[in-house]
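Can anyone check this?
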Amino acid sequence: MTEEEVKKLKTYRWYVWGLLVIAYVIVFFHRLAIAVVREELVEAFEITSTTFANLGSAYFYPYMVMQIPSGILADSLGARKTVTLGTLGAAVGSILFGYAPTIAIAFIGRILVGIGVSVVFIAILKVQSQWFFEREFATMSGITAFVGNLGGAFAQTPLAMLVAYFTWRSTFVAVGIISGVVALLCYLIVRDSPKDMGLPTIESVEGKKRQTMKVPPLGEGLIKVLLNKRTWPPFLAFTGFFGAFMALTGTWGPSYLIEVYGFPRQIAPNYTTVAILGLSLGCAVIGKISDVMRSRKLPMLVFGGIYVVTWGILVFVGGGKPPVEILYPLFFIMGVGCSTFVLGWACGKEVNHPSIAGISTSVVNIGGFLGAAILPPILGRIFDRYHDVLEATVLFQKAFMYCFIFAAVGFVFIFFVKETHCKNIYKESK
């Protein structure tokens, strides 16, 4: 191992990570874009609030189901091929969604997008475990989430402007074409580990000995992760936190701001954009704080407590209509607090066998998308049932109460998270 090889490793890993995180930006765009084009979709396909919410969830259900297969693919096929194929699938789905003549075809396009993008994040976590030091894992996860969330920010006000100029159909077709280009670049540039380039492994650079534990087969590894009781608290915390956040920013937030506060359709997404930017910043900050403190649980409790308080303000202050002057800071702080779930990935990885990092993080990742899949349709049914009965403020307060409950329950499960002190403790948990 020469100094030149180490320098090349430390340089090239940023090319690998940078390209994968561009694919992750596309993931976040699709995750949040549907909320901004709600009115256009309702008008184009003549659908109810429940159907609209189900169209949004059509992304999350396949995403959720694909998390364990994503982990298996990341651990077996490798990140390079997995992300290439997934992003190509998302490209086809986005183009199909843009051209959809009926709501059924729109659902198919949305499902294809969900399947395609579902593999990207777990592949990034796998690559991080091969190209970055263990002490950098939470920081890199936070930075990844920060950059990815910028795609969510693009799916707010910028998307509203693009739709106004080019129509929603043209916009989604263009995103599909861009996705295809990114998929090709991933295949050409990304490498699964430094060994694929004849470079020293990250363990050898750190001066660590190779793991002597027997590596379990993939099926056995999955069972071990599922039977490990320490896997589930971060899973359930992620369910509550991310489900509530996506119900607001990914489905119903712009409608809430339009109907309760009377904001124009081009202005309302500014507020959800602020929430997403808060999440982006929080993801970067909480990962760094955790790595510096050598603690996972304490930052999760602090940030998570803040998140629950912000939901309490949104639901209970002013009868469900807080003063407009506090909305920007409230939404921003809510996003920062929601970043708690970032540390859940590290916790899941650090309480399970180090050779199956893809599987362990994918299992935890299911939690967030379970919440994001089931909560928005619950709110949709409330809107369909009470839309003609309740005034808008009362209606949204009733609906958002479920978000508050989800967030509060997620916070409770943080108390059951096992503190790892930022290192793998699998031997201790056997």
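Reply from J.R.: I decoded it. The chain has one domain: 3-195+217-429.
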